[in-house]
Amino acid sequence: MADDVPSGAAPLHTDGSLDARHDRPSLVGFIADAKSEDAIREGLTELAAEDLDLRRGGIRAAVTAMQRQATPKLLIVDVSGEERPLSALGDLANAVEPDVCVLVIGDIDHVDFYREVTRSMGASEYLAKPLTRDTVARHFGAFLSGQFRAGPEVALGGRAVSVTGVRGGVGATTIAVNLAWNFGISLHRHTVLVDPDIHLGAAAFLLNVQPGPGLRMALEMPERIDALLAERAALPAADRLHILASEEKPSATANHAPGAAAALIEALRRRYNFIVADVPFAPVPLYTDFLDLVDQRVLVMEPTLAAVRDTVRLLTLPKGLRQDQRAVVVLNRVGMPGGLTRRQVEEALKMKVDVAIPDQPRQVGNAATLGEAAMKSSAGVRAGIQELTRQVAGVRILDAVTSQVSRRRASTRTERKGWFSKRGATP
Known about the structure:
By secondary structure, this protein is an alpha/beta fold. The chain folds into 2 domains: 24-148 and 396-414, Response regulator (Rossmann fold); 159-392, Rossmann fold, CATH 3.40.50. Helix content is 34%, strand content 19%. The protein has helices spanning 34-44, 59-66, 85-93, 111-120, 133-145, 172-186, 203-206, 214-220, 227-233, 260-271, 285-293, 305-314, 342-349, 361-370, 379-392, and strands at residues 27-31, 53-56, 74-78, 101-106, 125-128, 159-165, 191-195, 235-238, 241-245, 274-278, 296-301, 328-334, 355-358, 395-402, 407-414. An 8-stranded mixed beta sheet has the order 8-9-7-10-6-11-12-13, sandwiched between helices. Strands 2-1-3-4-5 form a 5-stranded parallel beta sheet, with helices on both faces. Helix 1 packs across helix 5 (133-145), helix 2 (59-66) runs parallel beside helix 3 and helix 9 crosses helix 10. It is elongated, with a radius of gyration of 23 Å.
């Protein structure tokens, strides 16, 4: 696939690194005070291959900046004076690419706080003030010089969600498109929408994006997939929303190589906070691999007896290794002419549906014609997608009081072990 990279582009890295990306700075720091900035500059200048981009400001300034610019490979943030530093680090995690190496400094000198930052939050290192040049060089220098790299056991990366219609025509692609749009556009998360159906997939069409050959080629040659290539194959629908899809002739044979889904998702996790895959249910190894590899499945149904039957059957599928919860059930087109009521559907399922979205054919049809997300013009769709986002994002905020440091803070966690891709953190 390297032959298909535009001429003049940087070489690909088969280890999955993003070092070749021209838009990605090596290091950016947000430091709240002059003395700490001087210590960091003096401690790291000799190790840096380029000028250090150190800016005055704390963690909130970092969050604001990272929502507007490319994520650096190494990010230094200052949580001094922040009332809820762990919550702020959680906000930062949602604004940066998953593989960023985050180094934290602050004014809390306590082992419990260090453990929270480096273990629960996944930052690579934490140093308490006051800083010295030697301390910075000793503890931060190895990260800048590249001695510590993220390994597969700690590069947890982004969260993958599959959206599957229990039968054709229930609106699963519309749900997947709007979910990805909400993550990428409304919430400013780095998001990719994947449509593995290279013959009849419509995800790119619904956002007015012309598919390219990148996805098909990646699925045929997974051994050549890395994070940089995955990003180049994805087409931009907006600044933080990309689409990975192909459109092949119906007569074309899909030569999906074994392990293609795993290689692709692993590469995408390094680049994106959220991966939304519009996965049809069919006895195709590629599709079943996607369903097994994601963190959360979503099943989309409509209020008909046939959809109820198929939903019950698909809920019995074994969970994937990363899946702690059963599939989220979305009842789409509530109130459609001739359809069952929500109560009738839930009685037939013998369970509550998780999300209900009203039938709004005019708004959804107009959005498809215009190539935009239906939730922009439909309050009912917007409310349903927002609730679905809450249920599949895998993030929860826990407030806790730590008496040892005598301050109230929020502990922001995910169902994974940490936020960031940890590089050489203390075990």
